[in-house]
Design a protein that fits this description.
571 residues; alpha/beta; Immunoglobulin-like; six-stranded antiparallel sheet; 18 helices; 21 strands; 28% helix; binds 2-acetamido-2-deoxy-beta-D-glucopyranose; binds calcium ion
């Protein structure tokens, strides 16, 4: 029995006691909102069109104001920019377009002052071909010759060593006459894959993590991790069952020898040990490791660690199900099935998490219908565990409008006939701060992507002034979430075929209930798991709802089509 419960039993006669909320020793990150900043698009301090660290510093108060306690920044490392910061030429320095290491230290200091944790992106799969390590490897320097994956080609070295295909199409190998060998690049040729079978590489990359933690960084988000290891003997991959793929397409092969290898999980577990060790040695709060994996549930949970917890990996591995499996047409039943799977099947020692958007996916108000944006905002906040919010979601930002000639996404602008289908620029347009020129992103200079036309009707300043606004909803949801610790059960129900319900009973006398009538007609439903004689107060509702915050409702409640709300039950 834990001490809190014991204390409660002792005190219960005299003091009202709530062991469920108070107990548990929940760590800072477990129900936190992690706010992803895409630095290029957040705030441009020097009016050169690209967001930067001083811009972020000047807007950290916004995070504080919104109630956010942790932020993760998309890559800010020194990079030639072939793949928008995912080709890193120095893991220990800031790219000049974003600022300097001094700026970053200033950012950390200000964040610390405001109580906001700072998480950095970690891109371990490959460096830039301009990284010192690669230059030395190219010169066959003894120390570095094995830092990358070099191999002799087939057919007397005239063809790549095997049939592997790059994510960006074509052979995953590039020939360099300096060494007379081919190197592996699973993305662009300017992104040589690091050789994780070389212990020196493993150590050098661990040193990078320590470098940033020594500066005060609170954790890392690891970019698409499955590609870390490949089989050592470089054997050919078999054909996939995708009949429409051509040999140049990544989808042509089944990636059984280049993705999700056991060694990759082990490396994640090693990084976790390193983070834990850093905390043990230097004190302070938990350093958090989060992994980005677009794989199925079974693979994804292996990144968390072994099922019995004997080895731990990521504190959480992003759950993208609400992105990849939910669309505008999804029924309440479809969505609840997805939620139940995570809630019911994630081993209890692990913490669930919920993501609605990021810099690689169309913004959810555009994907799921602008009309449904606040319903999904409420849904996400009522789910157990970590919430991940992409910058702009707190004001319900939709995708911007970008044409191919204004675009920047390197894979998309290569071929304008596929731009609309594949570009990620739409979800990366500048943050909409206010109604001034360029939405307050900068002082009217150029902007690296066009500012959305919608900024006059939708910007942070306007939403702060509104009584009912997405931003105000977002803030009040963060307050509610403070009560929804991991100990609070999550109960789902489908009512009258179209209404989804999520109940979070905190104790016998207090619960939150989320109801969402997706499609269908007006429905009258009984709040499930609620008691007849309880009091029900609306604490959040869709902006167009007839149910206004503060209204008292009965256990039986009427919901218009697409209406949603959260009620607090008290007795
Ligand atoms: C293999 O390539 C080398 C270098 O280009 C050439 O000298 C040699 O003749 C080739 N051998 C065969 C068998 O084609
Ligand atoms: C409800 O939302 C769906 C999806 O966005 C939309 O197609 C439909 O028109 C909405 N229904 C009403 C009555 O607003
Ligand atoms: C551009 O994409 C279209 C549509 O997939 C394709 O037919 C065309 O060959 C591509 N052009 C180039 C230059 O790759
Ligand atoms: C594990 C890893 O670093 N993967 C990255 C490989 O490169 C692509 C393209 O730059 C990134 O998107 C992945 O995150
Ligand atoms: Ca700038
Ligand atoms: Ca690799």
């Amino acid at each position: 029995m834990n001490l809190n419960i014991l204390l409660c039993l002792v005190l219960v006669a005299t003091i009202s006691c709530n062991p469920i909320v108070e107990a548990g020793g929940q760590d800072w990150w477990q129900t936190a909102v992690f706010y992803q900043i895409y630095p290029r698009s957040f705030k441009d301090s020097d009016n050169n069109g690209i967001g930067d660290l001083q811009g972020i510093i000047s807007k950290l108060d916004h995070l504080k104001d919104a109630g956010v306690t942790a932020t993760w920044l998309s890559p800010i490392y020194k990079s030639p920019g072939v793949d928008q910061g995912y080709d890193i030429s120095d893991y220990r320095d800031i790219d000049p377009i974003f600022g300097t290491l001094e700026d970053f230290k200033q950012l950390l200091a200000k964040a610390k002052e405001l109580g906001i944790k700072v998480i950095l992106d970690y891109v371990p799969n490959h460096t830039s071909d301009e990284h010192e390590w690669f230059k030395k490897s190219l010169e066959n320097d003894n120390e570095y010759n094995d830092y990358f994956i070099w191999a002799e080609g087939r057919n007397n070295n005239t063809e790549p060593p095997n049939n592997w295909v790059s994510h960006f199409k074509g052979p995953a190998w590039t020939f360099r006459k300096e060494r007379g060998l081919w190197y592996l690049n699973k993305f662009a040729p300017q992104q040589p894959d690091l050789n994780y079978r070389n212990p020196k590489v493993v150590q050098a990359m661990k040193d990078v993590l320590n470098f940033w933690m020594d500066l005060g960084v609170d954790g890392f988000r690891v970019d698409t991790i499955p590609d870390l290891f490949e089989v050592e003997d470089l054997r050919d991959e078999p054909r996939s069952d995708d009949a429409s793929a051509t040999p140049n397409d990544y989808e042509y092969l089944s990636h059984i020898y280049t993705q999700d290898l056991d060694e990759t999980y082990d490396m994640v577990y090693q990084w976790r040990e390193l983070l834990d060790e850093h905390q043990k040695t230097n004190g302070g709060d938990t350093r958090v490791l989060m992994t980005e994996v677009y794989s199925d549930f079974e693979k994804n949970i292996k990144y968390y660690g072994l099922p019995d917890g004997s080895r731990r990996g990521a504190h959480f591995s992003f759950n993208f199900e609400l992105i990849v499996k939910v669309n505008e047409g999804s029924s309440s039943m479809d969505i609840l099935t997805i939620i139940d799977r995570w809630v019911d099947n994630l081993p209890e020692i692990y913490t669930p998490n919920w993501v609605l958007g990021n810099h690689d996916q169309h913004r959810y108000p555009s994907r799921l219908g602008p009309e449904n944006r606040d319903s999904f905002m409420m849904l996400q906040s009522m789910l157990p565990g970590v919430q991940v919010t992409y910058n702009g979601e707190e004001i319900g930002m939709e995708d911007g409008q970008v044409s191919c000639d204004e675009g920047a996404d390197p894979q998309a602008i290569k071929n304008c006939s596929i731009f609309d289908a594949v570009s990620r620029d739409f979800e990366r347009t500048p943050f909409q701060w206010d109604e001034s020129v360029n939405a307050g992103f900068n002082d009217g200079g150029r902007t690296w992507l066009p500012v959305s036309d919608k900024y006059l009707e939708n910007n942070l300043k306007k939403q702060k002034e509104g009584v009912r606004s997405y931003y105000n909803t977002f803030k009040s949801l963060i307050d509610i979430r403070k009560e929804l610790t991991l100990k609070v059960p999550t109960k789902t129900a489908l009512l009258k075929e179209s209404v989804m319900a999520i109940s979070r009973p905190i104790n016998d006398c207090r619960a939150y209930h989320f109801l969402y009538n997706r499609h269908g007609d007006t429905k009258e439903v009984d709040i499930p798991y609620g008691l007849d004689d309880s009091k029900y107060t609306v604490v959040a509702s869709k902006l167009t709802s007839q149910h206004i915050i503060g209204d008292e409702v009965s256990q039986q409640i009427k919901l218009d089509p697409n209406d949603s709300l959260i009620v607090r039950e008290t007795c």
